[in-house]
Design goal:
single chain, 134 residues, mainly alpha, 4 helices, 0% strand, disordered C terminus
């Protein structure tokens, strides 16, 4: 079935959150492999960067001791936020980089709620990870 995990049942709330992340991340990664690539090379490169970062985050979590996987997951947003801040801090203030960064952060946060609880991914379709229309 769609992105099934091992038959083991999670035992804690942290396990449930981690497993939900893993199913969602795997669905996004699988969708990006199947999906059409954007015509704009800049957007294609940004989508590839997103996929590479998410893939690395999953690999790092899965590579951690099973008792520490949720802890690894819980620290990763801080790293990505720091990178986002560093990059945004080097952009022209006229481009309003802080607002754009916060909008992207909130979009990703809301995307986590769009996963169907019964089988772990969104059927709404479309990539649009970054609100490319902006």
């Amino acid at each position: 079935m769609c992105g099934e995990l091992d038959d083991e049942q999670p035992t804690t709330g942290e396990d449930l959150h981690y497993d939900r992340f893993l199913v969602h991340a795997r669905a996004i990664l699988a969708g990006s492999e199947r999906g059409a690539k954007p015509d704009d090379p800049l957007i294609a490169a940004i989508d590839e960067l997103f996929t590479a970062a998410l893939s690395r985050a999953v690999r790092d979590c899965e590579g951690a001791d099973p008792s520490r996987r949720y802890a690894m997951l819980s620290l990763q947003p801080l790293v990505f936020a720091r990178v986002a801040g560093l990059l945004a801090g080097h952009l022209s203030i006229g481009e309003d980089p802080l607002r754009k960064t916060l909008e992207a952060l909130m979009h990703g946060y809301a995307e986590a709620d769009s996963v169907e609880p019964d089988h772990g991914h969104d059927h709404a379709g479309g990539s649009g990870h970054f609100g490319h229309s902006q």
